[in-house]
From TrEMBL, chain A:
One Pfam match: MlaE
UniProt protein name: Intermembrane phospholipid transport system permease protein MlaE
Upper classification of the organism: Bacteria, Pseudomonadati, Pseudomonadota, Gammaproteobacteria, Alteromonadales
Family the entry assigns: Belongs to the MlaE permease family.
Oligomer and partners: The complex is composed of two ATP-binding proteins (MlaF), two transmembrane proteins (MlaE), two cytoplasmic solute-binding proteins (MlaB) and six periplasmic solute-binding proteins (MlaD).
Main location: membrane
Gene: yrbE
Keyword Flavoprotein included in the entry's annotation: no
Keywords annotated in UniProt: Cell inner membrane, Cell membrane, Membrane, Transmembrane, Transmembrane helix, Transport
Signal peptide: none
Transmembrane helix keyword on record: yes
Membrane topology listed for this record: Multi-pass membrane protein
Segments traversing the membrane: 53-77, 89-108, 147-177, 198-218, 238-257
């Protein structure tokens, strides 16, 4: 019986210790005066790894999700003679939910896992320790540029995702199924508000960017430096950040879109 | 990979992101009344607002000129008061005899506010804007006819002539009552 309590206690303490370590990692990586001259090349390199390389998967999945949304929305709406409302249906569901969330999930799978594996392997091969030996703070040199790269890329990727998906919806809805192009755009414009929908969606993707990148970096930085540990950390990154994104999405939606 | 190629690809990515933002902001969202344009507020007290909601459009002859900002119950009279923001170019253009009603777009559509405008006389508009009033025989004649000085609707004014929303249950109730009395 006491053993059970001990196990529970150890688990809880372990969780809190991990939370503290991750907060400490992020804080010490970010809380210093930025050195733009040295930092920019590092950041550009990470923007390429995290952002540019995710572009293709984001655009292709955006296109298909937009097309599927238009197809399914049309089948339901045409029954009410309301197929003109396809535009706002697609735009609102993309800008408010699907854009930020699906981008974050894809980002966790595409870029988050890569970050974890890279940092985990750096730790396993003691590159991080050697950096410290050379009096270079690995938090500033390795963690900080990767965090900022994720923070900048994800909102951009989410915007690209939504834009491409709306184009995909236009492709299916207007060019294939024959919704009027004028009413597709004009009803969309009358229903979508810049502050309420686009800015809130952007805020969402900033939050998801912090969550996903933070989890990915911490899992890599804190992994057991063996091949098994790295594989476990990579899996945990994808699972934990996907769950965190969905959980935060519910909270943010509840705060933003219920009056 | 050399750094020039890398930077070009990052630049391409960022430019694409900005392009997407511009497309969403300009082509998808409504850049107009709900934006940051100059507005002024009007109030109107109704008997019943039906299912009117905040952000519903305010129209004159079908053209959107403003949006419902908030709806609250008057603390003393227990009547719903609708607070709306109207495009500033219509400031002091409506006379206070204008009426406002709650209308429905289509059969299942959203409810919106329709203003039936009465154009304010030039003198009233000038008084409302705080400009010096130019003498105008025609306006004076109208004022004499009605026996009151006409007034234009300025910021935070209230439209008094209101028509409430049609509530189906009340309509049916009235119909049944009339049937019974015949």
């Amino acid at each position: 019986m006491l053993d059970l309590f001990q196990r529970l206690g150890r688990k809880t303490l372990g969780r809190f210790a991990a939370l503290g370590r991750s907060a400490h990692m992020l804080f010490s990586a970010l809380a210093h005066v930025p050195n733009f001259k040295k930092g920019t090349p590092l950041l550009v390199r990470q923007l390429y790894m995290v952002g540019s390389q995710s572009l293709l998967i984001i655009m292709v999945s955006g296109l298909f999700i937009g097309m599927v949304l238009a197809l399914q929305g049309y089948t339901v709406l045409v029954g009410y003679g309301a197929e003109d409302s396809l535009g706002p249906l697609v735009a609102l569901s993309l800008l408010r939910e699907l854009g930020p969330v699906v981008t974050a999930l894809l980002f966790a799978g595409r870029a988050g896992s890569a970050l974890t594996a890279e940092i985990g392997l750096m730790k396993a091969t003691e590159q991080l320790s050697s950096l410290e030996m050379m009096a270079i703070d690995p938090l500033k040199r390795i963690i900080a540029p990767r965090f900022w790269a994720g923070f900048i890329s994800m909102p951009l990727l989410a915007l690209i995702f939504s834009a491409v998906a709306i184009i995909g919806a236009h492709l299916v809805g207007v060019d294939w199924l024959g919704v009027d192009t004028g009413s597709f755009w004009s009803i969309m414009q009358s229903q979508v508000s810049f502050q309420q929908d686009i800015l809130n969606g952007l805020i969402k993707s900033f939050v998801f960017a912090i969550v996903v990148t933070w989890i990915a970096l911490y899992k890599g930085y804190d992994c057991v430096p063996t091949s098994e540990g790295i594989s476990k950390a990579t899996t945990e990154t994808v699972v934990h950040s996907s769950l965190a994104v969905l959980g935060f999405d519910f909270i943010l939606t509840a705060v933003m879109f219920t009056s | 990979m050399n750094s020039r190629k890398l930077e070009i690809l990052v630049g391409f990515f960022v430019a694409l992101g900005i392009l997407a933002f511009a497309m969403l902001a300009l082509k998808v969202a409504n850049s107009g009344i709900s934006g940051s344009g100059e507005t002024y507020t009007l109030n109107a007290k109704f008997e019943n607002i039906g299912s009117l909601k905040a952000r519903a459009p305010v129209k004159v002859g079908g053209v959107v000129i403003g949006r419902v900002e908030s709806i609250y119950v008057h603390p003393q009279e227990f009547l719903p008061v609708v607070n709306m923001t109207i495009d500033a170019q219509y400031l002091c253009r409506f006379s206070d005899t204008s009426s406002i009603s709650i209308l429905t777009s289509g059969i299942l559509g959203e409810q919106y506010l329709g203003i039936h405008p009465v154009i304010a006389p030039t003198s009233a508009e000038q008084r409302c804007l705080g400009e010096t009033v130019t003498e105008n025989k025609q306006d004076e004649a109208i004022d004499d006819l009605f026996g009151v000085e006409s007034k234009a609707l300025g910021d935070k004014d209230t439209i008094t002539d209101t028509k409430s929303a049609i509530v189906l249950e009340e309509l049916i109730g009235q119909f049944l009552f009339n049937q019974g009395s015949e």
